[in-house]
Histidine ammonia-lyase
Amino acid sequence: MLVGVGPLDPADVVAVAREGVPVALAPDARDAVAASRAVVDRLAASEEPVYGVSTGFGALATRHIAPADRARLQRSLIRSHAAGTGPRVEDEVVRALMLLRLSTLATGRTGVRLETADAYAALLSSGLVPVVHEHGSLGCSGDLAPLAHCALALMGEGDVVDDGVVRPAGEAFVEHGLTPVELGEKEGLALINGTDGMLGMLVLALHDLDRLADAADLAAAMSVEGQLGTDRVFAADLQALRPQAGQAVSAAHLRALLAGSPIVASHRHGDGVVQDAYSLRCSPQVAGGLRDTIAHARTIAARELEAAIDNPSVLPDGRVESHGNFHGAPLAYVLDFLAIPVADVASMSERRTDRFLDVARNRGLPPFLADDPGVDSGLMIAQYTQAAIVSELKRLAVPASVDSIPSSALQEDHVSMGWSAARKLRRAVDGLARVLAIEVLTAARGIDLRAPLEPARATGAAIARLREVAPGPGPDRFLAPEIDGATGLVRSGALVAAAFAAAGIPTSSAAPTGTLDRNGATA
């Protein structure tokens, strides 16, 4: 994949992060990088003090650095800033943040040398992944410590992951034919002053949440069906009374997924139930709120993908100016914002699961959906697992971005904590997938126990796909592998794909919600 001057496509970020697609600089990027480097070379030869070129960093920016010491300045910057600690960050996150840093280098606004940008692309394409640690970034000035660990590897120092094994970078470079880089003026700063870790995790989360929003609709449809709920509340004219875009999409999904259901038809008249519980009746409003939050976050991510984050920046007229564009606040806010509906969608999912297991509320199903209640516990503890995850998701919904701890002798006296917001969102997205998987397992068993009544074509297709990893009702058995199998189907989108294909729902339904009109029809 070629990285040019323009913004990256989010799908390309996911491909490089998760599939290891190799990258290289596009011709326009090579020209832009060379032009901006000429500006830095000119300033490096002058007596004019320029931050990052001939001065120290942060609170030490008033210190003038002699030309003979400027290469050492860059090495010292990277070594001192590679100060992360704690567990190793996932490889996909490191690849994403490296691609995004390379994208900024490609804009020609950072002043790095062409050979440095090429070496960064080569490292990213090599399969080696710099070791980056969980703790170290305040989200301002960008993700300094995580990016410094990547730059340290570029210098042939520190550690990298090579086919799952942690090794010294210098040793791995020799075997992979890579040459360590000796950084020039400004290059150390250009390699670490960005919001790339936050943005990379946001792009990956948005990709996953598109699938999970659809999975939440499928799980809700299966629960409505299995608990003998009604689909009338999802009618387009009722939903149009409140023209929220995400709500319209989710309600349209529920109508399509439940269309033609013999179970729903069996109690449409005369069952005496006037209204379903909120967790069934209001699912489009809650899942739709997640969709709208995703749409907002995608707008912020798209703007950031167009950005050239560094400080100082090399401008087209040859000026090198300092600014505050590295501050992670815009990303931190949406990363925190997303964690809220993620927790709430999971909370509603857990409530639907609990209704299936309570003989007082499940409308004729056995307690805990057990084969022989008392001897068997059925899905009792699966709901405990859900509840434990939901409790954690509520804690993860507490915003990180409202905190700030001053640093660098009060030069950096307000920070975004965007990296922390991104890390907790990753955990929240994982938790939502697991919660939805348990609801799907529970709902499928409940629907099977309604036999001889048959489910809708779409929900039946989902159950058939699920049965490849989790058998139907029966005596108690080892549940953990079934939960993991269902989680894999939810996370990959395979379960939703089976249901949506049977319902005739386009696979592009996860596109921005503005593509649907207020009634949930394609505009």
About this structure: The domain at 202-515 is CATH 1.20.200.10 (Fumarase C; Chain A, domain 2).
